[in-house]
Amino acid sequence: MEWEVVIGLETHTQLKTNSKIFSGASTTYGAAPNTQACEVSIALPGVLPVLNQEAVRCAIKFGLAVNAEIAPRSVFARKNYFYPDLPKGYQISQYELPVVGKGALTIQLGDTEKVIRITRAHLEEDAGKSVHGAVEGMSGIDLNRAGTPLLEIVTEPDMRSAAEAVAYAKKLHELVQWIGICDGNMQEGSFRCDVNVSVRPKGTDTLGTRREIKNLNSFKFMQQAIEYETRWQIETLEDGGTIQQATVLFNPDTGETRAMRSKEEANDYRYFPDPDLLPLVISEADKDAVRADMPELPQAMKARFEAEFGLSAYDASALTAARAIADYFTATLAAFGGEAKLAANWVMGGVAAKLNEADLDISASPVLPAQLAGLLKRIADNTISSKIAKEVFEAMWAGEGEADSIIDSKGLKQVTDSGAIEAIIDGVLAANAAMVEEYRAGKEKAFNALVGQAMKASKGKANPAQVNEILKKKLG
């Protein structure tokens, strides 16, 4: 039997606010345990939650970015369950009336585009954290994270492979950083995915029993977890077993998932509207104010790069893969004022290669956009060749100064004097008579070898186009 995997994602996106969603306590990461747990966080009697308006603005931003419905009226609910890191005994979330409704995000795998439907995105507070092993034989509770604002983004079960799920998660990860609502730091838990996986016979419409893989904070682990879970479910069914709905954890050391507990249903949480919070009302004016503050979105910028600068779809996609890359490119091009393709090639080529080698984000590049633009100007006006430009760039990366000063100090200025180049070529022809005869006998490779000898004789400084042109004339 041929099987089909069905996948949906729930992503907990930590919102980039200075304070918690229902109190003024700090959300700064890394503070000593329980130093940011205020009266609201630890649920002292008589305290009341007050909604953080910046968290609401973040939710509206996301809704606008995925062309979603934004509810004019949404309601906060109490999700009741017991856990040691939840002092209130309930989590404030949204249930029947979320702030963001149906939207969509388009992913791309190779040449194929696919629309992933977003069911909803709702505001909620994070819980605290259990800390194991800080004291031998004991566990502790850190409530610093309790009350941190989250936007939980839920998809329809539209993905049919681990690759599609990872592509969606990466696209969402890029988007929430692009619009400035999340720092995207997966190691610190700012972006965590729960993945619902089920399998069914291919060609059927009925959904299988799903198991939810919790708290995946790595795209690599997500891929591994889905692939293992898919194989496990198929093997279980083919062996005559049944799938029980459950919450499972992924162990990256073994590459396996294991059941943690049976999966709860919504009625297990006894949701009811929170009596301490009024309904959230969002007006058209509220949406317009957020819309006016929105950055240009990746798809719109990609289309503009193609139309305005004549870049290919591939180049435009690469340059808009992340906000920091797009900002670096546009700043470089603005300072350069020349051909966009040349700037794009260097951002995607030389700069990207050095960043990968040093494991740096482009925002930490030691070569600033204005400095790269200085190098591009010297390439464009033929002061240096493309080959010499790589040497200059290496020196710039090492902190040796601006392009002009490096070119001057190292004597790298390109030779464009026809007479000087002609003299170099005469010497090469005289020293390589056999190679000249090979070329005249019809061996085209000999011409390239002669060009190489001329460039070597000029120490790479001769203008390559002039070398080619003069050499062709000399060889008749």
Automatic annotation (TrEMBL):
Database matches in Pfam families: GatB_N, GatB_Yqey
Keyword DNA damage appears in the UniProt entry: no
Catalyzed chemical reaction(s): L-glutamyl-tRNA(Gln) + L-glutamine + ATP + H2O = L-glutaminyl-tRNA(Gln) + L-glutamate + ADP + phosphate + H(+); L-aspartyl-tRNA(Asn) + L-glutamine + ATP + H2O = L-asparaginyl-tRNA(Asn) + L-glutamate + ADP + phosphate + 2 H(+)
Species per Swiss-Prot/TrEMBL record: Pseudomethylobacillus aquaticus
UniProt keyword DNA-binding, yes or no: no
Self-association and partners: Heterotrimer of A, B and C subunits.
Listed name of the protein: Aspartyl/glutamyl-tRNA(Asn/Gln) amidotransferase subunit B
Gene designation: gatB
PANTHER family in the record: GLUTAMYL-TRNA GLN AMIDOTRANSFERASE SUBUNIT B MITOCHONDRIAL AND PROKARYOTIC PET112-RELATED, GLUTAMYL-TRNA(GLN) AMIDOTRANSFERASE SUBUNIT B, MITOCHONDRIAL
GO molecular function (one): transferase activity
Regions crossing the membrane: none
